[in-house]
């Protein structure tokens, strides 16, 4: 699922730019994806009540597959934006329910460690898929890129068949009386999640900006082999997750978040100053360490 998404993250802006889109249009198409992914999450509780988590995961990946196939046939900015909205809806559902199914079966006492290991699926794809996507787009064609993304989504649908579920994961109904008794605010906001959500948003601004525009930035700075940024970063995300989860369970979130924030901030500064592949790869080391500590800690 993540491979299908990550191979398009640095390459879709390049593809859209080749169609004559402006920087504003590229940013809009990237941003509308996030907005649709957020929008659908307001309805996940109702959807899981009606369908259960596993069926919601199926729907999310299927929407991503449809959107990916559409990219190969759409050439106008408006149609590409529509496909990006659909993919955002699918991504919002897919990531939410893949994580929910995993967390259901992870023991509470080892949740930090378990979520960290679960996130390695995303980590591995984040290292391999963007670099592979750049190779497919620049070395072959956009058609090969979209075919690979669609194939990965199709395999994700097949793989979902083997996802384990708990006895609690089944459609259930809520009585109208109980539904009315739930305060309106509580239907959208869980008490106590405000600060983690706000922090996640701040981190997402930086994370999304780097992942979306790093290939374009490298092109402007005449830095070749920019795909290695993701490969190197992923190696260090992988390394940080081997100890970050256990540290979280033993010491608490502060001891994981603080070094993660410092490392990631340093990475952003180095990216801004990068003028060569060497400096970009040094930045990716701190980028990987920071992201590998922050993401699973926030998720936990």
Write a structural description.
There is one protein chain. The protein has about 300 residues and is mostly helical. Helix content is about 80%, strand content about 0%. It has 14 helices and no strands. It has helices at about 1-5, 10-20, 25-40, 45-50, 55-70, 75-105, 110-120, 120-140, 140-160, 175-180, 195-220, 230-250, 255-275, 275-300. About 40% of the residues are buried.
Give the radius of gyration. 19 Å
Order of secondary-structure elements? HHHHHHHHHHHHHH
What do the pLDDT scores average to?
A: 85
Low-confidence stretches: none
Alpha-beta classification: mainly alpha
For the biggest sheet, the summary is: none
For the record, give the distance between the C-alpha atoms at the N and C termini, rounded to a whole number.
21 Å
Query: Which shape, going by the Cα principal axes?
Result: globular
Total of helices: 14
Strand content bin:
under 5%
Number of strands: 0
Helix content: over 70%
Topology:
Blueprint (H helix, E strand, L loop, with lengths): L1 H5 L4 H8 L4 H19 L2 H8 L1 H19 L5 H29 L5 H8 L1 H20 L2 H19 L15 H6 L12 H27 L7 H24 L2 H20 L3 H23 L1
Helix pairs in contact: 2-11, 3-6, 4-5, 5-6, 5-9, 7-12, 8-9, 8-12, 11-14, 12-14, 13-14
Summarize it:
By secondary structure, this protein is mostly helical. It has helices at 2-6, 11-18, 23-41, 44-51, 53-71, 77-105, 111-118, 120-139, 142-160, 176-181, 194-220, 228-251, 254-273, 277-299. Helix 7 (111-118) runs antiparallel to helix 12.
């Amino acid at each position: 699922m993540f491979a299908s998404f990550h191979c398009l993250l640095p390459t879709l802006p390049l593809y859209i730019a080749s169609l004559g889109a402006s920087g504003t249009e590229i940013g809009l198409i990237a941003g509308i994806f996030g907005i649709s992914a957020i929008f659908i999450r307001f309805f996940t509780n109702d959807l899981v009540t009606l369908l259960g988590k596993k069926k919601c995961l199926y729907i999310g990946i299927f929407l991503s597959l449809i959107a990916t196939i559409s990219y190969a046939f759409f050439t106008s900015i408006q149609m590409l934006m529509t496909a990006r909205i659909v993919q955002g809806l699918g991504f919002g559902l897919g990531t939410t329910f893949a994580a929910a199914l995993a967390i259901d079966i992870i023991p509470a006492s080892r949740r930090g460690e378990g979520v960290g290991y679960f996130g390695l699926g995303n980590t591995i794809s984040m290292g391999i898929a963007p670099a592979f996507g750049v190779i497919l787009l620049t070395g072959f064609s956009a058609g090969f890129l979209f075919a690979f993304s669609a194939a990965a989504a199709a395999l994700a649908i097949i793989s979902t068949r083997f996802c384990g579920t708990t006895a609690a994961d089944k459609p259930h109904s809520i009585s109208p009386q109980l539904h009315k008794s739930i305060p309106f605010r509580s239907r959208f906001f869980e008490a106590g999640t405000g600060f983690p959500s706000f922090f996640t948003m701040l981190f997402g601004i930086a994370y999304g900006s780097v992942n979306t525009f790093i290939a374009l930035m490298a092109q402007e700075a005449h830095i070749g082999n920019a795909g290695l940024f993701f490969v190197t970063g992923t190696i260090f995300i992988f390394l940080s997750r081997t100890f970050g989860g256990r540290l979280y369970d033993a010491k608490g979130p502060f001891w994981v978040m603080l070094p993660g924030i410092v490392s990631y901030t340093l990475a952003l500064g180095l990216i801004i100053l990068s003028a060569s592949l060497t400096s970009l790869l040094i930045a990716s080391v701190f980028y990987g360490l920071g992201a590998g500590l922050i993401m699973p800690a926030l998720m936990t």
